[in-house]
Amino acid sequence: MHSTQTRFRHAVMTAAAAVLALLATGCWNASAGARTGGCRDAGDWSGREQAAWLRSAVAFHGTTDGTDPSYAQASVVIRGPRTGDVRVLCRPLAVQVEFWTLTATTTRPEMSFVMRYGLSADGGRTRTVAFPAGLPTGRDGTCVRVLFAAYAGTPLVGGELPRMTGDLATAGDADVRFGTARIGVRRLLPAQGSACDAGRSTPSPSPTASTGWDIYHP
């Protein structure tokens, strides 16, 4: 009798263990499928990996050739998923879109903060950030250009902020350097008007000035 009860308890425990094993396997497979089939897990991504994702997702719309007298129609767009391109993240990234102006002086360009817009993005839907109103266009005779950047994480501080040396009139994206690898997209927009013509002398900064795309720059 005792032997029969022992065998019965052993059979029950064995069956229970088998059920638990099947449940665990099913849950693991469901989790793995959610990560690999439905979205990308960015939980342990480095700053460079986050920047690489942003680089593939961010686009600039609007003024590009310096002929528009304003930036009223310009915007930074973080695109949603595209056909055949699985870029949707399992958890959204904190993203900052930041704007500055650079004004020519007799020494080196003077940078002024304009606006920073914080949002979250996972590639599941399109997010659009319009350019700030009232950006200078150089029509007052100053050589001034607009810089924007999109990056993941917290706002830039200290040595992470952009810096540039050289001639603002002829500078390109590569001439603007950030002290961090988490910048996904940055763009120094072309000058508007004629104040930044390379042949002109460098003007003094305007008192109201404070108003491509390489992810692996230092």
Properties at a glance:
218 residues, alpha+beta, three-stranded antiparallel sheet, 9 strands, disordered C terminus
What shape does the CA trace take? Answer: elongated
Please report the distance between the alpha carbons of the first and last residues: 78 Å
Mean of residue pLDDT values: 74
Order of helices and strands: HHEEEEEEEEE
Report the structural category.
Answer: alpha+beta
Helix percent band: 10-25%
DSSP helical segment count? 2
User: C-alpha Rg, in Å?
Assistant: 26 Å
| Largest sheet strand order | 4-3-6-9
Q: Tell me about the largest β-sheet.
A: 4 strands, antiparallel
Bin the strand percentage: 15-25%
Give unreliable regions as ranges. 22-36, 199-218
- Annotation, overall tally of beta strands: 9
Overview of the structural elements:
The chain has 218 residues and is of the alpha+beta class. It is 22% helix and 25% strand. The protein is built from two helices and nine strands; from the N terminus they run ααβββββββββ. The chain has a four-stranded antiparallel beta sheet with strand order 4-3-6-9. It has a three-stranded antiparallel beta sheet with strand order 1-2-5. The chain is elongated and about 95 Å long.
Summarize the structure.
This protein has helices at 2-38, 47-57, and strands at residues 58-61, 75-78, 93-103, 110-121, 127-130, 144-152, 163-164, 176-177, 183-188. It is α+β, with helices and mostly antiparallel strands. The strands form 3 sheets. It has a 4-stranded antiparallel sheet with strand order 4-3-6-9.
